[in-house]
User: Fold this.
Amino acid sequence: MKWLLTIFAVLIALSGAAWLWANRAGEIEAISPPDAAAFDPAKIAQGETLATLGGCESCHGNDLSGGIALETPFGAIHSTNLTPDADTGIGTWSEMAFARAMRQGISRDGHLLYPAFPYDSFTNVSDDDLSALYAFMMSRPAVAKAPVANGLSFPFNLRPAMAGWNLLFLNKGPYVPDPNKSDSWNRGAYIAEGLGHCASCHTPRNGFGARDTGQPYAGALIEGWFAPALNATSPAPIPWASDALMNYLYDGWDADHGISAGPMQDVVKHVGALSEDDMTALAEYVLSLQSGRDPAEGNAARAFATQAAATADAPEFSEGQALFEKSCQNCHRDGTDMVPLALSSAVNLPSPANLIHVVTEGITPSENAYFVKPMPGFPLLTQSERENLARYVRHRFSQKPQWTDVDLSEAAASASEGQ
Ligand code: HEC
Ligand code: HEC
Ligand code: HEC
Assistant:
């Protein structure tokens, strides 16, 4: 907590200067709520697709009326009402006010927003797409629901401190195409860096809660899960290929990589809205982040997976082995149509968090992966059983070093708590 307070003091100091600058913008005048029928239906439809891609409803709720708590290291932040209700939503917001919130994290009345709202990604969205999103939001049914007070303690509850944050970390958009790259690469980058906000989970954050630009897509713990590195340090035993990425992002499952679970399942629902051209472009961009991996690694990974399937005995991990044979072996054995465990990123990550999550909660495949069977959860395992099982699975199915006892007990303890 001490270092958080120290850096927050720095933010507040910086904000002194930035405060006046930021408040130049001030309030944008209220308008009377626009008539939903005045928006072009094609534009509303475009906005709906974009809202799906941006995952607005996973944070603001299915009816977009907000009030959902997002846990951050600084306390809980609640999403706001995005319906066109004049008193509690954004009914009195002009398109200009909406665009300023998305690009600069400033609410219509001039107060600064917290980056739990990923405006540091949404800033990249084009004028045309922002305009379509606005049309979509303003044509939803208005819901009267007052915003919920945030659970942030002093000094994190000082919104003006965000002026310093913006000064340091907000790289205001819209996205500028790289002339040295293909059109489809640029399209993929626009999707990933903008509404897709992939980096907001896959890039580690610094002490200010901002993305660490020195380690783009290096993988990070988020909501108790580990979002794997998507750069050249990708833990996937078989290097990702374009068709594999497209399978994973459309279906949430690929034969060389396995299933998407946890917070990534929602993302799969969102990117499912992309056209095939856009998905191809997104895959091209993600692959370019991890260029440099040798495709021959794939052959070695397959050979190791075959060998790992055949070598069960590990006397030093006998407790974990007994649990595996009792609870897992029946499904996860050679000769079934399941992805070998040795090819799963969950087993090869720097953190045991995802493995312990799936063992505890099981996996309900996303709708698109209707052909994949569910995996049952094992919520009754004790904390030490979880740790022993994870140790054995790591030992048998990964060539990476064993997880540390600290990481294991943290992940196992939080899984026990969550039950
Ligand atoms: C990861 C969660 C998350 C996602 C995804 C998200 N938002 Fe939000 N949004 C928030 C939170 C939290 C706030 C409140 C921030 C605050 O009060 O400082 C917010 C606030 C806003 C605001 C400011 C409203 C106000 O009254 O000041 C707008 C506008 C907004 N979001 C639009 C969107 C749109 C459009 C999308 C989809 C493209 C979206 N958000 C997706 C979390 C999210
Ligand atoms: C809300 C957080 C979040 C967002 C946003 C997010 N991801 Fe993920 N992603 C995860 C998590 C967590 C996993 C691990 C899932 C698992 O182990 O089953 C993951 C897994 C993946 C994987 C599999 C990696 C591997 O080696 O196994 C890919 C590929 C991926 N994400 C791509 C993307 C792309 C592209 C975007 C943007 C369109 C994105 N993600 C946005 C959290 C997120
Ligand atoms: C009833 C069958 C069944 C049982 C029992 C079972 N699993 Fe699974 N498991 C699945 C299915 C189905 C999948 C997803 C499909 C795939 O990976 O091909 C899966 C996926 C996984 C994954 C990959 C997760 C990811 O995010 O990539 C891991 C790791 C895993 N199981 C570990 C275990 C462990 C450890 C046990 C024992 C505690 C276990 N499973 C028991 C059916 C099962």
Summary: Residues 258-259, 261, 327-328, 330-332, 338-339, 341, 344, 346-347, 354-355, 358-359, 363, 372-373, 375-376, 378, 389, 393 surround heme C (ligand 3) (CB under 6 Å).
